[in-house]
Amino acid sequence: MEYWNRHFECMERDSLKKVQGQRLRETVERVYFNVPYYRDKMQEAGIGPDSISSIDEIVKLPFTTKNDLRDNYPFGLFAVSMSEIVRLHASSGTTGKPTVVGYTRNDISTWSEVMARTLTSAGANRNDFIQIAYGYGLFTGGLGLHYGGEKIGASVIPVSGGNTNRQLQLMKDFGTTVLACTPSYALYIAEAIHESGISLGDLKLRAGVFGAEPWTENMRHEIENKLKIKAIDIYGLSEVIGPGVASECIVQDGLHINEDHFFPEIIDPETLKPLPEGSLGELVFTTITKEGLPLIRYRTRDLTRLNYSKCRCGRTLVRMDKCMGRSDDMLIIRGVNLFPSQIETLLLEMKEIKPHYRIIVDRINNLDTMELQVEIAEEFFQDRISQLQTIRSALQDKLESATGLAVKVTLVEPKTIERSEGKAQRVIDRRKY
Ligand SMILES: [Zn+2]
């Protein structure tokens, strides 16, 4: 097994916690003395740099949200003077102003380090040809992969996104071994290869590092089968550093978080309280080595769980599950937090139904009710009513034991639930508040 930085990637938890505590203290000091926004918030909470003596005390610190970044647009949360900033990136907001992030020279070096770990854990090394089909520019995808690729000594091909014919030509002529892009573009490229008549035997592709958008296990299998490669999931967000926050190893059982740089927590998005180990909740990051834009308890809105057990690859770095949706989608039904993605996961386990569903929430006699309408699979639709009843009660039991809620399940005919090009309207909440 190859590691880029065995010292940190395989560190014992006690030693790691000491490193994290020390780095957190330094970060809190940095923001307290250099970022008025954080100083005000900490003074409001009655805490200062001396209040933090270990990583466990992180729970005393205030949260940061995307709105805080917008309110301090463009450089208000930077902790160094602009003369020390060597790079700016920005993500286009769907509403209003973009989010701006700044890097010092050391931050760029940290970024290269975590990306070198990412590529190494995906099985890449100096002998690889890495074709980077992520966009270059204000988006962090292209340059992040670029730094990591150069750092491990691979031959980097900075082709950027689009122009699929040229992607195929370079892939064939240069002998690309690792493809880096979004998973949807990887599928597009796979289909283009099949249509172009190029045989996979003419290519040397053996792995792909895919991220920057959510993707399912089904999509992974499709990419792996069509391209005959290992498809590795990577995770990052520009606010934290860009790609390089977390990545799968070749075991493909969760994404290792580079927690000596980015400290993760899982919180209840409603109460903001930390949740017990292994719970599904909102992922929060504190950057503990960043200089330009350190962020304290940044709420990602991504839903996942953390697994602290040692991975078969030998790394001790905590693993996060593939993200299961956004905390903004959370429903509270009779005091129980419920995410549509939890239901979707259960539906995917049953072959008799399709993951096309609608959740209808209502309040009748002051009691929340929930109905799940779900499509029966075409091949089971002709079954006798008694069989449909069996499917229905099996699903009802599954839902009840997973969520603790009694759910009314209604099976509907195939293809009757409205399809949507963009974000599907999964939830209809009729409760009056
Ligand atoms: Zn691993």
Explain what this protein looks like in three dimensions.
With 433 residues, the chain is an alpha/beta fold. Helix content is 31%, strand content 24%. The chain is built from eleven helices and 20 strands. The strands form five sheets. The chain has a nine-stranded mixed beta sheet with strand order 4-3-5-6-7-8-9-14-13, sandwiched between helices. The protein has a four-stranded mixed beta sheet with strand order 19-18-17-20. Strands 10-11-12 form a three-stranded antiparallel beta sheet. Strand 15 and strand 16 form a beta hairpin. Helix 2 crosses helix 3 and helix 5 crosses helix 6. The chain is globular and about 70 Å long. Bound molecules: zinc ion. Zinc ion binds next to loops.
- Tell the overall outline: globular
Strand content: 15-25%
| Overall pLDDT | 93
Unreliable spans: none
* Global Rg: 23 Å
Helix content: 25-40%
Q: What is the number of beta strands?
A: 20
Count the DSSP helices: 11
What is the subunit organization of this protein?
single chain
Structural class designation: alpha/beta
Biggest beta sheet attributes? 9 strands, mixed
Bound molecules: zinc ion
Q: Strand order, biggest sheet?
A: 4-3-5-6-7-8-9-14-13
* C-alpha end-to-end distance: 55 Å
